[in-house]
Structure formats: structure tokens, C-alpha cells
Amino acid sequence: MKSFWRFLLILLLALLLALSLVIIEKETSVFSKGAAALSGSRPAASVSSSSAAVSHSSSVSSGGEGSQATAHDAALLPVDASGQLAKENPVRTPENTGENESFPADFYPYRTMLSEKGKKVYNQVFANAQALNDSFYLVSSLPPDELETVFSAVLFDHPELFWLDSSYQYEYTAQGEAVSMTLSFNSTADHIAAAQAKFDAALKALIDGAGALATAVEREQYVHDYLLDQVEYDLDSALNQSAYSALVNGRSVCAGYSRAFQLAMTRLGVPCYYCVGDSGGSHAWNMIRLDTGYYHIDVSWDDPVGNPSGTRHYQYFNLTDAEISVDHTRTRLSQYLPACDGPSLLQQAPSGLETYAGLGFTEADILYSLDDYYAACRKALNREGLGEHTFFFLLSDQFLLDDVYTSVKKEDYAAGYLNDVMADLELNGCSYQLQIKAQELDNGYYRLTQKVVLEEAVEKRSE
């Protein structure tokens, strides 16, 4: 009898153990799904990326951007593909194969990364996209992951296809091979003739201006500055994954800036590539080939949110891999683009000191006297108002720098500009904190970094 109860107890314990394992397995499965969902969430980070110490915050999907303390969100959309099982059909005749298309490796590097079958499908995808033919059988079947690589290569190599979206569909066989493809086009495809005319006119205006210059670097700087002047960073801008958004609409994100820059430089005969990677979030910028080697250039990060037209920033202009790696890391196919390991081209004079032009200043920014400095401080504070700010001023020489230091030490700035600012902002009183730091530049100039905190004084009530 005791043996029977012992057996029954053991059986019961075994059942309880099995049940607990099932529960643990279910909970583990739920946790795994949660982790997968987190890995696809939109990351965010903040990095300093302009000569005006602008804070950029990037919040983007995984896949492939006043100037004070403003958000600069990138919005590079990933390639998005969906597939369905193909119906049996013995007759599959590919059309518009693009077999006669020619793509020089110097200007279309992503095609060179593909297999021979992949290159044939690349030609076909390009030809059908160019003809606005959305559905076609593939000239060669490919595994879905290889088809995605091919489509990404077309998207990265061809900014002129401004109507092509980053999503597509495909049919696959029971053996897992993709055999047909359906492309997606944006709204410009609905009125392509008019859209193409606007696009070509905008591109021609840019090319004509840059084309008059002699060297590749001069042309590069012209295109860089043109986009800074003509385009406003806008996360909600229409068609912002295309060059059309930047060149025609004048509002875009990192993808639009980069594709417009790539297309302009290519048309000017300078090899220039679209580069995707991570910069605290998924991001796009460019690589360019100059006489001294390959370099990175990030036009959208040189154009802070609220950057006034005509203001020049060159912090992300022609950087090596080592120089840009502080906050940019290549991903996906862009990992296989050439190394940017040529000599540094950061704008420095023979003295080894930076030039004021390399820091984004122009001759009009030079302050020659203490009165000029006071006027610049008043203008900057009136523009920014209350709060914590950082300003940059260009001083003409060491003598003016000494005058500024003396003014700060003796608090002469109160009469110099702060009392006027209080009147301008209609403040009854204020609290003002000031820190300055100087950087010597070539030819005796100085860049003054001035951090301030301006707060309105709250009058104490008598008891």
C-alpha cells in the first residue's frame, strides 16, 4: 500500500515538473518576441555635429539627418520587401531586361558588389524602373535576400530615379527562389512629365553654376553650399527619400540631401556615392573621389535645423574614415565602398592653424572693435532670448581679444550690451552667466566661444 502511495506521489511530482517546464517555455517565447520587437525600435541619440555646436538627435527606422540646440532627425527608410508563393506557370518570359545598359564601376560601385546573376537582375530592375513598368518576371531567379541586395544596389546607385520607392513585392517558388517583382512608385509617377521637367530644370541650375568652376573640390564646395542655401531640413517633408524633395521642393532629410548631392557630382563628372550607416541612428551621407583619394561628406549635418541661408559649415566636408568615425559608422553594402584613407583635407593654413573660412566664417563676420563685439552680443541675445546659449564670434586680432577679456573681468559688458538687451526684451531684471574661450586661427584671427545663461530676475515680494 505504501508503494502505491509513493508511486502516486512521484507521478504527481513529475506532472507538476512537466507543467512548470511548459510555462517556462511559454514565458521564454514571449520574452524572445519582446526582444525582437525592441531590436526593431527607433533608436535615438544626440551628437554634436556643426561648428556652432548644434545638437543633432536621430530617430530613424533601421535602414539607411536659429542653429542653436535644435533637433536634426534623420529619416532614412529601409528597403521593405514582401513576398508571396508564385502560381505554377511554365511560360515566364522576362521583358525589358536592360541587357544593353552600361554602368561604369567608377560611378556605380554598388553594382560591382553583385554576383553575375545579380548584375543581370540589377540591369533589369533599373530598366523597368526607368520605364515606369512596375511588374515583371526576373531574367534570373534569385533567393529573396539576394534580390533585396540587388534592389538596394539600384536604389543606392541611381538617385535620378526619384519616383522609385524603397518598397517592392516579389513572387517565389516552392524552392524559395524569387521569380517576379513588383516595384512601387511615389506620387511623382502620376504626373511624371511635369515632375521630370521641374527636376531637370532645378538640376540644370545647380550644374550650370558648379560647372563653371575649374577643380573637383571647387565644384564640390559649390554644390555643398548650394544645398545648404536652398534646402531646409524638414522631417515631415514630402518625398523626402528622393533627390526631388531637395532639388524641387527645397525641404528634405538626410536621404534627400545625399541623393541630390550624389546626382549633381555624378553629372559634373566627379565619382560620388550614396553611403548609409549609423550615427546614433540610421543615416545617409556621401563619399566622393578627389585627386588625393576618397573622402566623406555629410551635407545634411553641415546644415543645422534653422541654419540661415548663406551660413557656411564645413565640419563634415571631406573627412577621412578616421575623422568621421567619431560619430559615423558605415553599414550594409556601404561597408564595401573604398576606404577613405587619403591625406587629411581639414582646412588648415601652412602655419598648422585652422582658417576662419574652414570654420564657416566669412569676411563679413570679422569683429574689429569692442563696439563691434558688443553689437554682435546684443544681436545674438536678442535673437535667442532667455535660456542657455553658445555663440561664436570672429575677432580680428589679439588686441581685441585682450579688450574682451578685460570687459568680462570688469563686467563692463553690462553697460556695453546687457542693459540694452534687458530693454530690448522688456525684462525688469536679469541673471547673466558668461564663460568665454578663445582659439587662435591663422593670420592672427581668434574664434571666441561664448557660453551664456540669461534668466529673468524674479522680484522678491516683501512680507
Description:
There is one protein chain. With 463 residues, the protein is of the alpha+beta class. It folds into three domains: 80-189, no CATH class; 191-359, C8orf32 fold (Roll); 363-456, Translation Initiation Factor IF3. The protein is 37% helix and 22% strand. The chain is built from twelve helices and 17 strands. The protein has helices at 2-39, 109-112, 116-130, 144-157, 192-211, 216-230, 243-249, 254-267, 321-324, 370-384, 398-410, 413-424; strands at 44-48, 55-59, 80-85, 135-142, 164-172, 178-185, 232-233, 251-252, 272-278, 282-290, 293-297, 317-319, 329-330, 366-367, 387-395, 430-440, 446-456. The protein has a five-stranded antiparallel sheet with strand order 12-11-10-9-13. Strands 3-5-6-4 form a four-stranded mixed sheet, with helices on one face. A hairpin with a 2-residue loop joins strand 10 and strand 11. Helix 10 packs parallel to helix 12 (413-424). The radius of gyration is 29 Å and the shape is globular. The termini are far apart. The relative contact order is 0.10. The model is unreliable at 20-71 (pLDDT under 50).
Class based on secondary structure composition and strand pairing: alpha+beta
> In total, how many beta strands?
17
For this structure, the CATH topology of the largest domain is C8orf32 fold
H-E order: HEEEHHEHEEHHEHEHEEEEHEEHEHHEE
How much helical structure, as a percent, in the residues? 25-40%
Low-confidence stretches: 20-71
Query: How much of the polypeptide forms β-strand, as a percent range?
Result: 15-25%
Number of helices: 12
Tally of individual domains = 3
Biggest β-sheet strands, sense, barrel: 5 strands, antiparallel
Distance between the termini: 91 Å
Annotated CATH architecture of the largest domain? Roll
Largest sheet strand order = 12-11-10-9-13
Overall mean pLDDT: 81
Q: Sum up the overall morphology in one term.
A: globular
Q: What's the CATH class of the largest domain, please?
A: Alpha Beta
Rg from Cα: 29 Å
